[in-house]
C-alpha cells in the first residue's frame, strides 16, 4: 500500500490533492462547514443557479410524491419501477426542450455513460471538444469507438478532423452548450451546419444551460434556435433544476432506441418518487416563471461588472459561471483559502480538471445571492488578489 501513499503524497506536493469538506448547515446560499463552529460562508460553488433546491413549490412536489409513492421504486423501470410520475416528468422535459420525447437517467454522469455507447461502437468515430465533461469522455471510452478530440470550440479544427477521419461508420459529435469550467458557449448554429454537411449525429450536453438560457428555459439549443438540428440534448436535474437525476431529449424513435440500448438506464433502479416530484415542480417553475431567469441574469452581470470596475481585465465569460483564471494550482488554492477567511466559499479548480497553468477560482452566481452580497464578494476578491497576486490586476 506504499504505492497509494506515494501517489497521495505526490498529489499533495503538486497542490492537487482532493479532499471532502462536510457541510453542517446550508440555507439561502450560505453554508457552515462542519467543525468550524457558527461561521457562515457565502456559497459560490453551488450549481443551484435558480435557487430551486429550496423553492417551496419544489419541496411540496417532492413531499407529495414521497407521501403517495414511498421512498423508492424498488426496481429498474423496465421491471416494475416504472411510475406514471416518471412519464409525466419525461413529457414535461420534452416540452421544455422542444422535442418529441425524453428519457430519465439516474444522473448526468450515468446518462452520458449510457447514451454514447448506445449510439456508437467499434466501427464508429466520436469527435469531442477537448473541454467536454469527464462523464462524456467515460461514455466515449465505454463505447469502444475511435475518439478524436478537437480544440475547444474550434470548429475549423473539427472540420479538419472530419475530413481526415470521418470514416464510413457512424460519426458522433459531442459538445457542451455551456462549458462548466470556463462558462463559455459552443457556436451551436455553425456546428449544426457542419454536422449536417458531414452526416454526423450531434449530442449536446446542456447541464449548465437548461433553466438558465432560452425564452422558456429550454437551454441554449432553444436560445440559438437549433432544437431541430440536435439529435440528442441531455441535461441534469442537479444544477439549475435544484434536485437530482438527469434526462436526454430527442425524437420518439431515438428515445425508444435508447431505452432498449442504454445500459445505465436498463440495469439501474428508477429515480425515487421524491426526486421525480421535485423535478416535475422545478421544470414547471422554469417554464412558467421567466422572472427567475431574469433575476439570475441581472445578478451575473452585476457581479462581473463589479470585478471589472475593480481592475480585473481578463475575460469573465457570458454566463453565470465566472472563471477567474490565475494560473498556478498553489496560487488558486491560496486565494480560495484567503476568500474563505473572508467569508466566501469558492472552489479552486485545478488540473487535471482543467489544463495545466489554468488553475482558477470558479464562481457560480445563483439567485440565492443578494446584490449587496455580490458587491461585497467582488470587493473581497479584488482585495485578496491585491495582496496575493497584484500582477493579475490592472
Ligand atoms: C455536472 C455535469 C454532468 C453530470 O451531471 P450529474 O447529474 O451531476 O451526474 C454532465 N455533464 C456536464 C457538462 C456537467 O457539468
List keywords for this structure.
394 residues, binds pyridoxal-5'-phosphate, 14 strands, 4-stranded mixed β-sheet, single chain
Question: Would you spell out the secondary-structure blueprint of this structure?
Answer:
Blueprint (H helix, E strand, L loop, with lengths): L1 H12 L9 E5 L2 E4 L7 E3 L12 H14 L14 H14 L3 E5 L2 H12 L5 E5 L4 H10 L2 E5 L4 H11 L5 E6 L11 H10 L3 E5 L14 H4 L8 E5 L9 E5 L1 H10 L1 H4 L6 H16 L1 H20 L11 E7 L1 H13 L2 E2 L1 E3 L9 E6 L6 H18 L6
Parallel strand pairs: 3-12, 5-6, 5-7, 7-8, 8-9
Antiparallel strand pairs: 1-2, 2-3, 4-10, 9-10, 11-14, 13-14
Helix pairs in contact: 2-11, 3-11, 4-5, 12-14, 13-14
The protein binds pyridoxal-5'-phosphate (PLP).
Descriptive account of the structure:
- There is one protein chain.
- With 394 residues, the chain is α/β, with parallel strands linked by helices.
- 43% of the residues lie in helices and 17% in strands.
- It contains 14 helices and 14 strands.
- The chain has a 7-stranded mixed beta sheet, with helices on both faces. A 4-stranded mixed beta sheet has the order 1-2-3-12. The chain has a 3-stranded antiparallel beta sheet with strand order 11-14-13, with helices on one face.
- Helix 8 links the parallel strand 8 (201-205) and strand 9 (232-236).
- Helix 3 packs parallel to helix 11.
- The radius of gyration is 21 Å and the shape is globular.
- The N and C termini lie far apart (49 Å).
- The model has no long low-confidence stretch (mean pLDDT 96).
- Residues 107-109, 112, 133, 135, 176, 180, 205, 207-208, 236, 238, 246 line the site of pyridoxal-5'-phosphate (PLP).
- The site of pyridoxal-5'-phosphate (PLP) has 14 residues, from helix 4.
